[in-house]
């Protein structure tokens, strides 16, 4: 493991004015999104859609890295160029989602565990050969009556740490994603408490498994009210609670925090990121790793029609520019 290389890659991903496009939807997830716009989820349609995003002229001004799915990292553009190479030629760092989705945590109703550690070392080595230079693993934390339990947090933190250690061994920068979901009627205070507890446990496990913090990135949720909460915190309050939470739970050695949008609309995710960065310089770069918040407008504009590609790319470019500017 070359920690200097890993650190350099991590810092390139969170360079000022840029962030990550999360284009790592599984076949099942993208099928649901395609159904909403009346497009069949065939391999060719998925390939065409991703190519539309990746070939957007000038996207490299705002996008430093792209997270790919296993299918996508093996696909080529219509010109026969491997997607990882296409991105790298634009100065964009290719990444890869490596977890195998979430499953119910046995004997813990309402809680989930992410699987995929079996065979991970071999898969990471293959992804490196395919051109990936960073990897991502998502853990899901639900808030509800009596949950999350400490056992759930420990189990997911252990998996995240093992993933991160395997990734660094393979020469990949791990993007550690413990997502506390917005689903539920919990207050922003409850989200703050759970997020802080989650991050403390995650970083304890990362330290235990000797993960080099300088060579990783954190992809967390923002501290926000539950979707069904009767009182929705303001953007200003979300920003303050989020930064205050991270100041006591995220070590300063971590190069950057790349927020997930967590179900916020494109405008909401953009405004909140701007509010967070308006609080001034922090120990870490405060960037983004957005999926739907970057893609949804372009996806609806595209609608599976070749004739809509150019205008959809313009829409994607405009949103990427807005989000990148929100970094301050």
Task: Please describe the structure with a list of short key phrases separated by commas or semicolons.
TIM Barrel, two-stranded antiparallel sheet, 328 residues, alpha/beta, 8-stranded parallel beta sheet
In short:
The protein is of the alpha/beta class and 328 residues long.
Please describe what this structure looks like:
With 328 residues, the protein is an alpha/beta fold. The chain has a single domain (3-325), classed as Aldolase class I (TIM Barrel, Alpha-Beta Barrel). It is built from twelve helices and ten strands. The protein has helices at residues 3-13, 27-36, 43-54, 70-73, 83-89, 120-130, 150-169, 188-208, 235-247, 266-277, 292-302, 309-325; strands spanning 19-22, 63-68, 93-97, 102-104, 112-114, 134-141, 173-180, 217-218, 256-259, 285-290. The strands form two sheets. It has an eight-stranded parallel β-sheet. Strands 4-5 form a two-stranded antiparallel ribbon. The chain starts with a helix and ends with a helix. 49% of the residues are buried.
């Amino acid at each position: 493991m070359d920690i200097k290389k890993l650190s350099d890659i991590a810092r390139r991903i969170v360079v000022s004015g840029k962030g990550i496009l999360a284009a790592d939807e599984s076949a099942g997830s993208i099928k649901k999104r395609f159904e909403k716009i009346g497009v069949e989820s065939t391999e060719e349609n998925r390939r065409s859609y991703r190519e539309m995003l990746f070939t957007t002229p000038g996207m490299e001004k705002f996008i430093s890295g792209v997270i790919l799915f296993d299918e996508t990292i093996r696909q080529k553009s219509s010109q026969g160029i491997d997607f990882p190479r296409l991105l790298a030629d634009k100065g964009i760092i290719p990444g890869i989602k490596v977890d195998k989705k979430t499953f119910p945590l046995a004997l813990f109703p309402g809680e989930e565990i992410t699987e995929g550690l079996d065979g991970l070392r071999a898969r990471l080595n293959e992804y490196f050969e395919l051109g990936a230079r960073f990897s991502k693993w998502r853990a899901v934390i639900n808030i509800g009556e009596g949950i999350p339990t400490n056992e759930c947090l420990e189990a997911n933190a252990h998996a995240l740490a093992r993933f991160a250690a395997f990734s660094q061994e393979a020469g990949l920068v791990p993007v550690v994603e413990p997502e506390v979901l917005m689903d539920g009627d919990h207050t922003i205070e409850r989200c703050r408490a759970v997020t802080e507890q989650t991050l403390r446990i995650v970083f304890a496990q990362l330290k235990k498994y000797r993960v080099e913090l300088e060579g990783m990135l954190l992809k967390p949720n923002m501290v926000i009210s539950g979707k069904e909460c009767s009182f929705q915190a303001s953007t200003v309050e979300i920003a303050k609670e989020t930064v205050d939470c991270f100041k006591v739970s995220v070590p300063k050695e971590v190069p950057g925090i790349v927020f997930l949008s967590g179900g916020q609309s494109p405008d909401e995710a953009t405004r909140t990121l701007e509010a967070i960065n308006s609080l001034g310089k922090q120990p870490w770069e405060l960037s983004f790793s957005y999926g739907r918040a970057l893609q949804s407008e372009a996806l609806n504009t595209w609608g599976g029609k070749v004739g809509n590609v150019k205008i959809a790319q313009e829409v994607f470019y405009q949103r990427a520019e807005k989000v990148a500017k929100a970094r301050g």
